[in-house]
Write a structure and sequence with these properties.
By secondary structure, the chain is mostly beta strands. The chain is built from no helices and eight strands.
Length: 99
């Protein structure tokens, strides 16, 4: 698994940081949103004022640790990118890419 982002959590529950791959290097925000149905995302991911993805709050079955399941998509991607935002060292959160 490869880390493609580093974020810090704000007091309002939002995350601010950077998403960085070979083709992307953007400052991004992951902000909580009101859900209008059970399957709706808990968070929206934006970069440069453009929506780049969504996130869903999850809890690890074995560990009980909370994390975000994130789906990023952009016309420049060949397919959506699935990632997990997990607590890292100190106040840092890591965005881990998976295929």
């Amino acid at each position: 698994m490869a880390s493609i982002g580093t974020f810090t959590r704000g007091d309002d529950g939002s995350f601010a940081g950077t998403i960085r791959t070979l083709n992307i290097n953007v400052k991004a925000a992951i902000k909580p949103v009101a859900k209008d149905n059970e399957r709706a995302p808990d968070y929206r991911v934006t970069a440069n004022g453009v929506e780049l993805g969504a996130g869903w709050s999850k809890t690890g079955k074995d560990s009980g640790a909370e994390y975000l399941s994130v789906k990023l998509d952009d016309p420049s991607f060949t397919a959506p990118v699935h990632a997990t935002l997990v607590q890292g060292d100190k106040d840092e959160h890591k965005l881990i890419w998976s295929r």
